[in-house]
């Protein structure tokens, strides 16, 4: 029999310092992360939840008008946790700016922040959101103000981009193209004119023609200014990566009881195991458990008999509805069983679907209870 995820034991353990909720988009990661944070605070932990969700519904559910790039304490009438709850939403640009300010001298930081090329890549560079989520996690952990940090990871088409992002960005910023761009600064203005004028190589001339001489100059100036803080950038990425692999971190893979979502969850678990990340379990959201024991086949047969007799149309409709619900529950059980056969060591938590969308703190508390009771 598959073990169940002991959510309260996980949240109560003082050794648990970081909980990372990961999974494909649309499976309830954000709601799960927020509900875990609410429950942890209720049970005495000083908790902060970092969300990547651009929607306002989480802020509204927590009783806040909006979330920003710094944690805000949740203070809602009727909510008096034994611990403390704060929440924030990632702002990629501000996080990148903070990183520049932390790793560069005052003059270098001004040069980087004012550079047009930086203003572009700080919001659109491939992997920026994923890396900045991990950068913000590193910042929160370094501040040491919270017992527990709960992270809602970015929705990624490529399953675990947030794990790859630090390495991808380091490789890109240390790669051949960047070295080419930084070359003119080392050679002085003459070197830059050579690149823009196309006398260095056909490749450089083509780049200048395509992107424009000014953009190329901006990129070159950015790389030269960025070079002084590159070591700190890489060191922080490495430190955060080690935090993710530590015993104080727990990964919860979140999925819906659907084939595609569970396939993604399977990939997540395999990749996390490969990276030696501590997988604590699988959370299957929006399940449809059935307490009645009447099999779907017998319910349909009974409904057919009632229809033939022309009696009790309401009872017939209820029986058919029950049969449909049983079929859905059976399908979900088979899908989850397929996952557990492939990953027998992964504990599972099934969370029944809510009758309505979560839009307030009470709803998050209800989700938290369902997580704790999930089997």
Summarize the structure in words.
This protein is α/β, with parallel strands linked by helices and 375 residues long. It folds into 2 domains: 7-161 and 239-291 and 333-373, Rossmann fold; 296-329. It is built from 17 helices and 8 strands. Strands 3-4-2-5-1-6-7-8 form an 8-stranded mixed beta sheet, sandwiched between helices. Helix 2 crosses helix 17 (361-373) and helix 4 (92-103) packs across helix 7. The N and C termini lie close together (11 Å). Residues 184-211 have low confidence and may be disordered.
Task: Identify the notable features of this structure and list them briefly.
alpha/beta, 17 helices, elongated, ATP binding, 2 domains, eight-stranded mixed beta sheet, Arsenite efflux ATP-binding protein ArsA, ATP hydrolysis activity, 12% strand, P-loop_NTPase
Fraction of helical residues: 55-70%
CATH class of the largest domain: Alpha Beta
Query: Could you state the CATH homologous superfamily of the largest domain?
Result: P-loop containing nucleotide triphosphate hydrolases
> Uncertain spans, ≥5 residues at pLDDT below 50?
184-211
One letter per element, helices H and strands E, the order comes to HEHEHEEHHHHEHHHHHHEHEHHEH
H/I helix tally? 17
Given the C-alpha coordinates, what overall shape results? elongated
Give the spatial strand order of the biggest sheet: 3-4-2-5-1-6-7-8
């Amino acid at each position: 029999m598959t073990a169940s995820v002991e959510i309260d034991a996980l949240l109560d353990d003082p050794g648990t310092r970081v909980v990372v909720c990961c999974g494909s988009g649309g499976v309830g990661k954000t709601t799960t992360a927020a509900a875990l944070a609410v429950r942890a605070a209720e049970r005495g932990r000083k908790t902060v939840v970092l969300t990547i969700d651009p929607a306002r519904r989480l802020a509204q559910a927590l009783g806040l008008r909006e979330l920003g790039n710094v944690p805000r304490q949740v203070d809602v009438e009727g909510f008096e946790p034994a611990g403390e709850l704060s929440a924030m939403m990632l702002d990629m640009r501000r996080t990148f700016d903070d990183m520049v300010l932390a790793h560069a001298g005052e003059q270098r930081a001004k040069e980087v922040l004012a550079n047009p090329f930086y203003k572009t890549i700080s919001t659109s560079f491939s992997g920026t959101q994923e890396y900045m989520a991990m950068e913000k996690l590193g910042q929160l952990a370094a501040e040491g103000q919270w017992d527990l940090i709960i992270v809602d990871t970015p929705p990624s088409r490529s399953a675990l981009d947030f794990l790859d992002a630090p390495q991808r960005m380091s490789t890109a910023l240390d790669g051949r193209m960047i070295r080419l761009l930084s070359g003119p600064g080392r050679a002085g203005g003459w070197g830059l004119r050579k690149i823009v004028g196309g006398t260095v190589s056909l490749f450089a001339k083509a780049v200048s023609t395509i992107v424009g001489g000014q953009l190329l100059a901006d990129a070159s100036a950015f790389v030269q200014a960025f070079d002084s803080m590159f070591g700190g950038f890489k060191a922080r990425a490495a430190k955060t990566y080690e935090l993710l692999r530590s015993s104080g971190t727990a990964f919860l893979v979140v999925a819906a009881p659907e084939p595609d979502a569970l396939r993604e969850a399977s990939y997540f678990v395999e990749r996390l195991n490969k990276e030696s990340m501590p997988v604590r379990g699988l959370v299957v959201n929006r399940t449809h458990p059935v307490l009645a024991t009447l099999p779907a086949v017998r319910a349909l047969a009974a409904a057919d008999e009632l229809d033939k007799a022309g009696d009790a149309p309401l009872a017939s409709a209820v029986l058919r509805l029950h049969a449909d619900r049983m079929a859905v529950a059976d399908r979900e059980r088979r899908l989850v069983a397929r996952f557990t056969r492939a990953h027998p060591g992964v504990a599972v938590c099934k969370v029944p679907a809510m009758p309505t969308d979560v839009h307030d703190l009470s709803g998050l508390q209800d989700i938290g209870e369902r997580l704790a009771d999930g089997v």
